[in-house]
Amino acid sequence: MPIIKHSELSTYPIPPKDKNRLRIADSHEFVDLYRGDKDLRVGKILCQDYGCEYVQLGSDIPSPADSRFFQTTQYPYEIIGDLPDNYYLLLLKSRLIYHRRGNISLGGFFRWTPTLGRELYRWKPDIIFENPYLTLTPRSYMTYFASKALKIPLIYLDAGDIIPRLTIKHKISLIAEKPVIGRAAAVITYNEAGKQRFIYKYGYPAENIHVIPKPVDVARFNSGIGCGNFKQKYALNGKIVISYFGRLCANKGPQYLLKAADILRNRGVVDNVVFLFAGGNIEPADAAGFKSILASLNLSNVRITGKIPNYDMPTAYAASDIAVFPDVTNLPGFSTVLAESMAAGLPIIIGIKGWESAVPLIDNQTGMIIEPRNPEQIADRIELLLNNVELRKRLGAEASAYAQRYMDYDKVVAAYYKIFCELTNRNSYAGSPNNKYADIAV
Q1: 291, 302, 372, 383: most buried by Cβ count inside 10 Å?
Q2: In this prediction, what percent of the chain has a pLDDT beyond 70?
Q3: CB-based contact 134:110 (threshold 8 Å)
Q4: Residue 331, preceding bond cis, omega within 30 degrees?
Q5: pLDDT for 377-394, tens place per residue?
Q6: 3-state helix, strand, coil in the chain (%, to 5)
Q7: Dihedral class, residue 353 (left if φ above 0, else alpha if ψ from -120 to 50, else beta)
Q8: What is the DSSP string of 139-163?
């Protein structure tokens, strides 16, 4: 397994460049494992299906989320399992730097990895695949200078979250960020909102921005898998399960689903309904407000799972009948749990009105779009879906069909690879094993 610890880097024999292989350097802030191999999957497919070499510029420390989830101060690489022979995970010596305490689930930290630039020069990739998040961190500047020195393309894969307004701090940071972003040969975002942010904030040319939806394992997250043990564990058998997936943080709005549950109780329409809150928190204190509201409402039909291991998440979706995301506006983005809910074929109620460009859902076609933080509208849509089984089936089926056509990992990676080949003047994508996925827009 080519996982290289920082103490081994100076002696590790770097393989000679093969002109027939595309060597890609991947720069994430952190390669999280608490959500499974999500941050490794793209590289795995590029290695296995396209013969690429993938150099992951990782760190020897875990992200704040992984640190809390796995109760460790060292990167938990031992749980990764097998990687392709041409996948190199470099565990670079790093430090975690906090620049804002408070709710770290919204960021406020970065890693300091002084040897990242050196490794880029040593490995001499053909392309750098950079994953920024809202603002640039030190590694982003290192990859910028490396791309200039090595004269290779720099590509940004951006989560597509929106900064609602440019504060004084953001305007100051733009002085340094604009030339760095301007160096990028291409930008990939998950949604139209991300595209508009790069145009508005950085003045980046629209023709170099590719909107490709967030990838998801559509085979793993599907409604047909068995979920009997999960239902039994949380007393869901024989119930209509209305689920919230994600952290119990105030900015994500789980408290508004509690209030909607109270409204529905007062309407007398929840005799056979359970409200499932599937997820835990990075910081336990973040759930204090949610727990306070839950205690005050005294709801008997609420189930809270706490942190769920990634391998159990497919059963949580399969055990659910409706998914509710009460507030997807702070920060607006295309979350992993939303992508997984779509793949699982769940009818989705989402509080994102006014920020619809952040997600690929269309009201009453692939989901139900409502105003954020609005328990009355949540209750109304739930009641509508409870009374209309055919509507539930149609919305779920349309969401699943979209995920299968546009969000499957193999299809998304095929689109990435096509961009990489175009930027490095290669034509090998035309004969790649996954060229049948050419219907993905780039």
Answers
A1: 372
A2: 91
A3: no
A4: yes
A5: 999 999 999 999 999 999
A6: 45, 20, 40
A7: beta
A8: HHHHHHHHHHHHT--EEEEE-----
d(CA 349, CA 386): 13
Helices 116-123 and 138-150: crossing angle in degrees, nearest 10, is 30
Residue pointed to by tokens 């607006």: 332
Tokens of 90: 């470099």
Beta bridge partners, 4, equal: 90
- The model's pTM is 0.92
Cα 60 from Cα 71, distance rounded (Å): 15
* Interstrand relation of 109-112 and 95-98 (parallel, antiparallel or unpaired): antiparallel
Taken as a whole, the chain contains a residue count of 442
Tokens 């949380």 appear where? Answer: 234
Burial of 394-412, coded b for 16+ CB within 10 Å and e otherwise, reads ebbebbbebbbebbbbbbb
Pairing of strands 186-189, 273-278: unpaired
Domains in the chain, ordered, with CATH?
3-216+408-437 (3.40.50.2000), 228-405 (3.40.50.2000)
Average pLDDT over residues 296-320: 93
Residue 423 has pLDDT above 70, yes or no: yes
Whether the Cβ atoms of residue 333 and residue 381 lie closer than 8 Å to each other: no
Per the listing, tokens 């704040």 go with 64
Looking at residue 103, its pLDDT comes to: 52
Q: What is the pLDDT of residues 174-219, one digit of tens each?
A: 888 899 999 999 999 999 988 988 998 889 999 999 999 999 999 9
Structure tokens at 378: 């949540």
pLDDT for position 281: 75
**Would you place residue 331 in the very low, low, confident or very high pLDDT band (cuts 50, 70, 90)?**
confident
Ramachandran angles phi, psi of 236, nearest 5°: -105, -5
What is the greatest pairwise CA distance in the chain? Answer: 70
pLDDT value of position 92:
97
Structure tokens, 327? 């507030």
Strand partners, 324: 349
State phi, psi for 299 to the nearest 5 degrees. Answer: -85, 130
CA distances from 424 to 153, 154, 273, 412, 421 (A): 7, 11, 55, 19, 5
Other CB atoms within 10 A of residue 243 CB = 25
| Helix 409-423 with 38-50: angle, nearest 10 deg | 60
